[in-house]
Specification:
2 copies of one chain form a homodimer.
Chain A (H helix, E strand, L loop, with lengths): L1 H14 L6 H7 L11 H22 L5 H11 L2 H10 L10 H4 L3 H41 L10 H11 L6 E8 L6 E8 L4 E7 L2 H16 L1
Antiparallel strand pairs in A: 1-2, 2-3
């Protein structure tokens, strides 16, 4: 019981949520290395809760942004690096139940465990208090990052920059060709070739979508032209 | 006005939802080739609404399933193929506003447009009636597929099958090594090597996560051992 009370007060203090089912939060704060009920199922749920809350928020906050920009905004907000930073910010490391082996791990491994546990906490918040509880916790955490997003518009994508660069010197546009697609339908990997004939330049990009592979090939081409 | 009324009655009949803001559904049913307000922003939102609804449903329906199985279940339910099938099932093709060029397209291209429009409809449902409205539409559509999922448990993942295969003949486990990681932090591509020394067999997998790349390398190894 006292473990529940400790967690309850930690969740109230750090996430601003009065929890009804503290056992959910104990699980969320338990890495599988600790034994017992761990946080992986909650992480599965929390990952998509976070993505959902952030997507709706971006949709409403940036009514003029097209789907491509919204997707880039979301990827900028919801990634392992940001999550690990937020986990550190809420002091999650001090509350995490970790097995002996993992206690010693540092650096990347530790940051990834923290990021996963934060997602699990979002899952617990959702189950305990619905979408509203998740929003009330997630939005303040990401507020300053969302406000800083519009300055990213300046960061044009690589294909656009490559195109503008070539047009600027009167050259024809690069030609993108999908060379190979592998993997199952829902998790395909695309290999795309980018050819700038006038410069005799050919680059390749590999990514989880054709668009992404093209961007990587264009990025590579930009670097080679530099 | 009459366009709104037609859409309203179509949404009620096909998706079982009494819509308050028919203009949302007109956008959802409008491909960018048609001009005017198209469905890409709604697709951005609907994609994550669908993923959220399905994830929670799976989380509650399969309390014994671990995160890996839940992820496989979700990937099985939420992919372009299934969405295109569902779009055909609700008769979405007849209501879609398509530009002249796209009207003629068939096959894969058309199926992808249908799948995207169905996601956009889920986005519209959510904005119009909240998570509950999205659930009321999505769950009946996927009900039979969710019920059929447990039989998929038999489909063990490739790494597990490869391991069991090797153990079955008294061989040591394969060794997986990450050979290369490329791409930005949130969209990395992993190249993993799978080595079965006793058989002098080396395969490679490329995927959007280490786990996925390992699975693909294991799958390849299973094929080569066959």
């Amino acid at each position: 019981m006292s473990e529940f009370r400790t967690v309850q007060s930690w969740v109230l203090q750090r996430l601003g949520h009065q929890c009804r089912s503290p056992e959910l939060f104990v699980s969320a704060l338990t890495h599988r290395s600790f034994g017992g009920k761990h946080n992986e199922r909650l992480e599965f749920l929390g990952d998509v809760v976070l993505s959902f809350v952030v997507s709706e928020w971006l949709y409403r906050t940036f009514p003029e942004a097209d789907e491509g920009l919204l997707t880039r905004y979301r990827a900028h907000l919801v990634n392992g690096e940001t999550l690990a930073d937020l986990a550190v910010q809420v002091g999650l490391g001090d509350r995490l139940n970790l097995g002996g082996g993992e206690l010693k791990s540092g650096g990347f491994r530790r940051r990834s465990i923290l990021a996963d546990a934060l997602e699990a906490l979002f899952g617990a918040l959702y189950l305990d208090g619905g979408v509203e509880a998740a929003k009330r916790c997630i939005e303040p955490l990401l507020q300053s990052r969302v406000q800083a997003l519009p300055s990213l518009v300046a960061l044009k994508d690589s294909k656009t920059r490559l195109q503008e660069r070539l047009q600027g010197v009167g050259l024809p546009l690069p030609v993108y060709t999908v060379e190979a697609v592998s993997g199952e339908p829902h998790e395909q990997v695309f290999r795309v070739r980018c050819e700038i004939a006038a410069q005799g330049l050919v680059t390749q990009g590999i990514g989880p979508s054709r668009r992404r592979a093209e961007q990587l090939a264009a990025e590579e081409a930009l670097g080679r032209l530099a």
